[in-house]
Specification:
This protein is mainly alpha-helical. The protein has helices at residues 2-9, 15-21, 27-30, 32-38, 42-50. The protein is 60% helix and 0% strand. The termini are close together.
Length: 58
């Protein structure tokens, strides 16, 4: 999960190809994973951590 989330922070990278590169068939199959671990969707995680905040759970 940490590797995927680091990729989510990368600029100009669409979310769906990132999660597919890590073996998820679609964004819909990935969304529950970060919600369980971090309490937010991939898009929410991206916005929060691109703004310079640190990770809450690692």
């Amino acid at each position: 999960m940490n590797f995927i989330c680091q990729e989510l922070i990368a600029p100009d990278s669409p979310i769906e190809p990132i999660v597919q590169n890590f073996g998820f068939s679609s964004l819909n199959t990935f969304i529950p994973a970060p919600q369980k671990v971090y309490g937010m969707t991939p898009a929410q995680y991206r916005r929060k951590h691109r703004n310079g905040n640190t990770m809450e759970k690692v």
